[in-house]
């Protein structure tokens, strides 16, 4: 009944950094050619959204944030053959066009048509489908899910299994897959190895889960907030340490604990000095460090190049290296087959209108993932 028409609905609009989101009535235009309009059913709050609110990431305003979600197709634009109204879907903040140089490279999961780092705030046709109070509202990293309805390019949407519980698998849209894939695809953690995970939020705990599935024998969690440790142990950490409890640098603490350094170190905070600590914590000759955290737009990392010269490997990835359109449906099936659990990551459910409270819980270190439902 709504196909082809402008939909008026509620959205959380971000008018600028350092101010609360406001719930507004917005207009969502119908999908154009090769676009899909989706009714969002559940969306998680990720630290990357908060990086925009804190001002750490600079992009264009006003914008509708949110990128970790699941929903149902409402209508499709011209030329769309792989989706129909009613299909369950997950938005893809890293699209997969299958045609660009990165998509054609089996080793990469980036896509030239992504908006991360560019932050143009538009769909592929260079406009967004949102307006509010007569003003255009920008799109966020190909997705924008803090709204009842959103429009995405079809390359930025994955169709998932009909049985998937949307209020859980929304986490496969970002936090879970990013962390888990960083361990299994990017770190390629080996059985019997020692891992250090810096930052035990939703993404860091998912790294822990990945390290455990990969057979690591020691998984050391590191966080400034010791309240995160119980959950980390539940997810598979074998020990947890708080840098505040030590008067020597954390890499020296780890060196003592691990016979000179870990096999794999993961930075899951977005702090460049912790990235250097992670690199310093990895063993010379063979240690691998994976950057997962998103640093502020102006941040620069510095370290002694001898750390790399002596054989350490430093790498990183967005979305855990998964080729999004190919792999998200498989991850959903793996979840349905009980190959991993998402429940330990979910600490709160809230109605969408309470979105600012959800962000407060994240900032105060009280939540892992809050899932907003519509
Ligand atoms: P979160 O805020 O839930 O978790 C971060 C954790 O780090 C918290 O538990 C903090 O207490 C802890 N912490 C903060 N500073 C320090 C410090 N100096 N030393 C030790 N611990 C510290 O965030 P999240 O898990 O949602 O996201 C983590 C990062 O990953 C964040 O930067 C986010 O933007 C990024 C991210 N990257 C991708 C990607 O594709 N690469 C995807 C999703 C999120
Ligand atoms: Zn995210």
UniProtKB/TrEMBL annotation:
Methyltransferase keyword on record: no
Gene3D superfamilies documented for this protein: Medium-chain alcohol dehydrogenases, catalytic domain, NAD(P)-binding Rossmann-like Domain
Domain Enoyl reductase (ER): 16-372
Catalytic activity: a primary alcohol + NAD(+) = an aldehyde + NADH + H(+)
CDD domains: alcohol_DH_class_I_II_IV (cd08299)
Locations listed in the record: Cytoplasm
Enzyme nomenclature, EC number: 1.1.1.1
Cofactor: Zn(2+)
Main enzyme class: oxidoreductase
Domain of life: Eukaryota
UniProt KW keywords: Acetylation, Cytoplasm, Metal-binding, NAD, Oxidoreductase, Zinc
Family: Belongs to the zinc-containing alcohol dehydrogenase family.
Protein name, per record: alcohol dehydrogenase
Organism: Staurois parvus
